[in-house]
Specification:
The chain has 31 helices and no strands. It has 593 residues and is mostly helical. It has four domains: 142 residues, Serine Threonine Protein Phosphatase 5, Tetratricopeptide repeat, CATH 1.25.40; 167 residues, no CATH class; 103 residues, Alpha Horseshoe (Serine Threonine Protein Phosphatase 5, Tetratricopeptide repeat), CATH 1.25.40; 150 residues, no CATH class.
């Protein structure tokens, strides 16, 4: 490199240091001494202009001063990463006044993408990195210049995808209202309607808030969206939310997201007429995505809006089918639609690649994301068998006996795919039973001995307990007996678990029922053991001058083990009871269409 070039780089380093440290006086003096540093040609060769540096470090005043000294096309220069000063402000500093200053000078920067990524314009970049306020500001700056999203065919779909991913549903709805053709526009891989099916699954499903939150959610009013006021209304609502309590803020946000997601879906449904083959293909893939993600609202509303889609989606024998995917990915609500589907017999008789029918699909192991939501390998095995039995209930006997490409019936295929899970379930059950049996056996020993070593001892003449007529002594005797019988029952029940055969069907009712009985009996034995102990100690302390002060610590300490058991084991017990004898995930049948 030339000696002059080395000096130029050294001098530019000095200038960049002044700018990064917000020393405009020194930077200005340097520029006056070396005016060439602001030439477009020179700045391009350096890879990063002084304006890039000022925008990166968020120095608003320096940006304003530099903009006065450079021509408009200076704001279109890209640095080594392909970013204009506006893109740098959008992705690094996030200072909105800097973006406003740059846009006042040259609005073309709104359309200039990042480097070779033709889709990554500044507004998309701002939302992608989580700078939502900057993203909204740039979107407002675009205004009616919708060519920003149309000149390149993938800019619009990828911008909408970014909005869906980051929860900016108001922005997405506004753009779709003004550019309805983007509903069926596609990026590199997916169309916008597929993104709606996949990313809006949680927002479209009704919230599962409990108690007072449901009541608040129901009565919150969200103004309907229009192309002119909706984004500003959403921002005003968010400003109102910020002044509320955290719980109320969460409910408002959920209601706002649900409302905007519903409006996006309705907009898509209103544009399902005159479908060509490309649009039908996109909708088919979107329905498949909805089935995988459990987006039941999308599934129902699109098929209701255009009944032609029912046959397109349901009866297509491709590599994947919507209902087959719902079973494969364990999406209960979509499967319940199938159970209420008037043509379910046709779907149940279909088979896809490898000659797998619907029951073969249920025989596959659930995805880890679904399986790990369930506590314990035994309960996971129970849920898998519940799925198999639920699908089995809608297929005929011939389907149950049908072989796939590997010459396996659905039941054989289930056993093949669930070997490891069944073994893990057996180990989990045995480990749990063994641990609880040890505790139960200790309680049996303690309570048996306590029955013959009563508090206060026995009368030497009659042999009767000294405190026999005391009410607390009767409490002691009853508690001791109940604890002894309950712990004995729990030990015998856990012994039954250890000697079970552990077939697939045992995980459905037999093993969970034994575990429920064992844990319940063990909990009862622990509680009554502590009652017996506490009553015995209180009998001993009755002669204390301040009996209440003596009783209170005993009662408080006795409640500690019970509390620990309730906190650590009771949720497991409740989950097992609900999973085995509760209303069940397959009880609700949706009539559709």
């Amino acid at each position: 490199m030339r000696r002059g070039g080395e000096l130029e780089e050294l001098e530019m380093g000095t200038l960049y240091k002044y700018i990064s440290e917000d020393q405009w006086h020194d930077a200005k003096a340097f520029i006056e001494l070396h005016p060439r540093v602001l030439d477009v040609e020179f700045a391009t060769s350096m890879g990063e202009t002084p304006l890039h540096v000022a925008a990166k470090f968020g120095h608003q005043n320096i940006v304003k001063e530099l903009v006065k000294l450079v021509p408009k096309d200076y704001l279109e220069i890209r640095d080594a990463c392909g970013c204009t000063p506006l893109a740098v402000a959008a992705s690094y500093s996030g200072v909105i006044p800097i973006a406003s200053c740059l846009l006042e000078e040259n609005r073309k920067a709104l359309k200039i993408p990042l480097g070779d990524y033709e889709w990554n314009i500044p507004v998309t970049m701002a939302f992608r990195i989580g700078s939502n306020q900057m993203g909204r500001h740039l979107y407002f700056a675009i205004g009616d210049d919708l060519l920003v999203f149309k000149e390149n065919p993938i800019v619009g779909p990828l911008f909408l995808r970014t909005c869906f991913m980051t929860g900016e549903l108001g922005i997405a709805l506004d753009l779709l209202q003004r550019c309805r053709e983007l509903i069926f526009a596609a990026d590199h891989l997916y169309s916008t309607i597929e993104h709606i099916a996949f990313y809006l699954s949680d927002s479209l499903n009704k919230t599962q808030l409990r108690f007072w939150k449901q009541w608040v959610y129901h009565y919150i009013k969200i103004p309907p969206a229009t192309a002119t006021n909706q984004i500003r209304v959403d921002m005003q609502l968010e400003d109102e939310m910020s002044s509320r309590a955290e719980g109320m803020k969460e409910i408002h946000k959920l209601k706002l997201q649900h409302t905007r997601a519903t409006e996006i879906l309705e907009l898509a449904c209103n544009n399902l007429t005159f479908l060509n083959e490309d649009k039908k293909r996109m909708i088919g893939k979107a329905m498949l995505a909805a089935a995988k993600s459990g987006n039941v609202e999308f599934f129902k509303k699109l098929s209701t809006a255009n009944p032609e889609l029912i046959s397109i989606v349901t009866f297509s024998q491709q590599k994947e089918n919507a209902f087959f995917s719902a079973v494969k990915y364990r999406q209960v609500e979509i499967f319940n639609l199938l159970r209420g589907f008037r043509f379910k017999n046709v779907v149940a008789a279909m088979f896809l690649e490898n000659y797998n029918n619907l029951l073969h699909t249920a025989a596959k192991l659930a995805p880890p994301s679904q399986l790990y939501r369930i506590l314990g390998a035994a309960m996971q095995m129970q849920r898998e068998w519940q799925w198999f039995k639920a699908v089995q209930s809608i297929v005929n006997l011939g389907i149950e006996r049908r072989h796939n490409k590997d010459k396996l019936t659905p039941l054989e295929y289930f056993r093949e795919n669930h070997k490891e899970l069944r073994n893990n379930g057996e180990k989990w059950m045995k480990d749990t039973a063994t641990s609880c049996s040890v505790v139960g056996a200790l309680i049996v020993t303690i309570m048996f001995a306590a029955a013959f070593t009563v508090p206060g001892g026995n009368d030497q003449a009659s042999g009767h307990p000294i405190f026999l007529k005391e009410k607390l002594f009767r409490v002691f005797l009853i508690s001791d007996a109940v604890s002894l019988f309950a712990s004995t029952s729990s030990v015998l029940t856990f012994l039954g678990i250890l000697t079970s055969r552990y077939a697939e069907d045992d995980f459905l009712y037999s093993l969970p029922t034994k575990l429920i009985i064992g844990l319940s009996a063990l909990f009862l034995s622990i509680a009554t053991m502590l009652i017996a102990f506490s009553s015995a100690v209180i009998i001993m302390l009755q002669q204390n001058s301040s009996p209440f002060l003596a009783f209170l610590p005993v009662i408080m300490l006795a409640s500690v083990p019970i509390t620990i058991f309730v906190v650590m084991q009771f949720p497991l017990l409740v989950e097992i009871i609900y999973s085995t004898y509760g209303p069940g995930i397959f009880r609700k049948v949706e009539k559709w269409p």
